Amino acid sequence: MPKNAQCPASDTEICRWLGKECEDCYISSLKHKEDMEKAVSDFRVTLSLLPEDFDSLQGEECCFCVGDVKKPRAGYAVIDLAHSEPEARKGMFFGFGKKVRVRVGSLMPVSISICRDCRRALRMVDYIKWIVTAAFVGLGIGLCFIPAINAIPALPYGVVIAAFLVGYVISRVVSDAYMKRKSKQTVFNVFDIPVCRKMQEAGWFTIQDSGSATRFIMSRKSYTKKISGLRDAVDEASAKIENTPESKD
Ligand SMILES: [Zn+2]
Ligand SMILES: [Zn+2]
Fold it and tell me: How confident is the model at residue 150 (pLDDT cuts 50, 70, 90)?
């Protein structure tokens, strides 16, 4: 990491956590020293809100498998978790398109190891909702071809809307039944994963409330930096500086 005497993050775990060259770093983009210091202390607060076993979410084994046998990781399920700390300044409130505003001080993309089977089960929940709803809308459109319905103005619209609403409700019932059946093998809610439940108890929450099944983004790679070794790295770095006379970068 480049050493920057002007930067309060220089040679700290925060600089390592951010893992950026100073030119690309959020902290060095701030103009005032107080803002930089505030940013560093804010990042410290965010890191302090993570449980010690946070990195285990990215292990070799699936975190969604229920029972003793955890299948090998096939990828990551990614979800943004938010926390109200550190206190956001005025004007830093996020609305997320909702009337009720949620205060977000920390936002952390959490990548969680997932196996092939659990990934399929999680995707299926969404898939069922789409397919069932689409089937009912298709049925509604089909009904509009019946002359008796077709002849009455505006009725076809009503039929399609009604079909959509019925389909929507039934799709929820079907996907809930699917989840119930699969819940012996797979966890569907992020906060049913022990490490994440610990985070929830520490005040972390999902921005989009999505009911019993959490909506993840599936990814091949992890979007989450590990917290292990941040402290050790600081000691290592300072030891290196003592030993190396004047090294640039
Ligand atoms: Zn820096
Ligand atoms: Zn699994």
Answer: confident
